[in-house]
Design goal:
By secondary structure, the protein is an alpha/beta fold. The protein has two domains: 166 residues, Rossmann fold; 119 residues, 3-Layer(aba) Sandwich (Rossmann fold). It is built from eight helices and 15 strands. The longest helix is centred in the first third of the chain and has 18 residues.
Length: 317
């Protein structure tokens, strides 16, 4: 029987890939196996679609997560999975490349869509040229590997009562790389990628002080404030942690509101998966309107205060 493998750095990404894996498994008649960094997650992964959970051994304090590459690659040589999906974080992409190299197989990094063709071969898609084109990738070797960015898929829904196997993998062999020190990154702001509502400010905002309008709108809606690249990198009005775009954060909120955002392709690539997009811009030809579900053509200094007032009345705030 064909096998689909899942590996991600954390629980949330694993559940997202389990959703993708289960969708593919139906067409292949395959079973799904998920790697777990903690054996306590095994039952949850089985309930969310895994037929087997491969529990990775604990790492010593001085061992990096990349130490798992040799264990995973060796297991893949023995079991010969047909498809291997890996969470495409910065670290995940590096691990995926190293595993693919050891297995002498191909890898589609930045994969945003997965499907099976008429021959039941995996067809992978990823964005090119800042989202202006879509590249279709087919891997002729096995396993067919894809590094999938976080939040590309919804998390798998649980189905209690499912049964599956749990298997512990052997200890990690010695590695020449050791962790000398761990220093947590100090965030200047919240994680905008986790926000369900994002109010994004662009160059249409004339002064740094005027970002307060966007903050008030975000506060009324229970959301967070993000920005386009120039606002963070050129003007330095907001930290780079909240800059949205092809080389910044990629978000997938329930609602995105662009305030004075022009909507160049480099920015749209970072927010194109938003479920609902509202654009506010005085230029009716601004590219952001092409990506918007709703648009307000007008001066943001007039439109945003009116929107805040209406929302306060509607929400009785």
């Amino acid at each position: 029987m064909a096998e689909i493998w899942i590996f991600a750095e954390n629980r949330e990404q694993t559940l997202e890939l389990l959703n993708a894996g289960r969708s593919l498994a139906g067409g292949l008649g395959a079973k799904v196996a998920a790697f777990a960094l903690d054996g306590k997650l095994a039952e949850e992964y089985i309930n969310h679609g895994a037929d087997e959970v491969l529990v990775l051994p604990s790492l010593a304090e001085d061992q990096p997560l990349e130490s798992y590459v040799s264990v995973i690659a060796e297991e893949a040589r023995r079991e010969k999975p047909d498809i291997f999906l890996i969470g495409g974080t910065q670290r995940g992409k590096e691990m995926a490349a190293r595993i693919a190299a050891r297995l002498n197989t191909g890898l589609c990094s930045g994969c945003t869509a997965l499907r099976l063709d008429e021959k039941k071969q995996l067809v992978m898609e990823r964005m090119l040229f800042g989202g202006a084109a879509v590249q279709t990738v087919v891997c002729t070797t096995r396993p067919q590997m894809a590094a999938v960015p976080p939040r590309t898929f919804e998390q798998a829904s649980p189905a209690k009562g499912r049964e599956g196997k749990v298997r512990e993998l052997p200890p990690v062999p010695g590695t020449p790389v050791t962790v000398v020190k761990r220093t947590p990154k100090v965030r200047e702001s919240v994680d905008v990628t986790e926000a369900k509502i994002v109010v994004c400010v662009g160059r249409g905002v004339e002064k740094k002080e005027d970002i307060a309008l966007a903050r008030e709108l975000a506060q009324v809606l229970g959301g967070e404030v993000g920005c386009s690249r120039p606002v963070a990198e050129e003007l330095q009005w907001l930290p780079e942690d909240v800059y949205i775009g092809i080389s910044g954060k990629k978000i997938k909120p329930e609602l995105y509101i662009g305030v004075g955002v022009a909507g160049q392709i480099q920015h749209v690539t970072g927010m194109r998966d938003s479920k609902v997009v509202l654009a506010i811009n005085r230029d009716e030809n601004a590219p952001i309107f092409d990506a918007a579900d709703y648009g307000i053509v007008g001066d943001l200094y007039d439109a945003v205060p009116k929107l805040i007032k209406e929302l306060r009345n509607a929400l009785k705030i």
